[in-house]
Amino acid sequence: MVFDHAFEKQNGSVIFIDELDTKLHPLLLRYVITMFHDEKTNPHNAQLIYTTHDNYTLTKDVFRRDQIWFVEKQKDLTAELYSLAEYKLDDDRKVRNDASYNKDYLLGKYGGVPVLKEFNMWGNSNETE
């Protein structure tokens, strides 16, 4: 397998990929991620750091809390980067290991989700915005 050979040549390298999920089937994406977690296919402990908008892999079965990071745009247009392991919920408790990360993320519990304002999707000039 191509990935196996690539890992053998890597010596603990870090691989950065923007929007890794863009052209990959969700099952293939999960497969690639698990290859990085497996000592047999990744004997030199190479790391994969990637950005995504996909939440299919955002589960406790794929990642630990310290492996999940969010970026949230601030009102002053800066961005805040924070780990799920360090994130505190409204009641000042940390996120549990057995939480449903992907569902809770889409519900906005961890921040980092876009703020959607009403807009005229069809562009009809007769309608008020």
Automatic annotation (TrEMBL):
<dbReference type="GO" id="GO:0016887">
    <property type="term" value="F:ATP hydrolysis activity"/>
</dbReference>
<feature type="domain" description="ATPase AAA-type core">
    <location>
        <begin position="12"/>
        <end position="58"/>
    </location>
</feature>
<protein>
    <submittedName>
        <fullName>AAA15 family ATPase/GTPase</fullName>
    </submittedName>
</protein>
<dbReference type="InterPro" id="IPR027417">
    <property type="entry name" value="P-loop_NTPase"/>
</dbReference>
<dbReference type="Pfam" id="PF13304">
    <property type="entry name" value="AAA_21"/>
</dbReference>
<dbReference type="InterPro" id="IPR003959">
    <property type="entry name" value="ATPase_AAA_core"/>
</dbReference>
<dbReference type="GO" id="GO:0005524">
    <property type="term" value="F:ATP binding"/>
</dbReference>
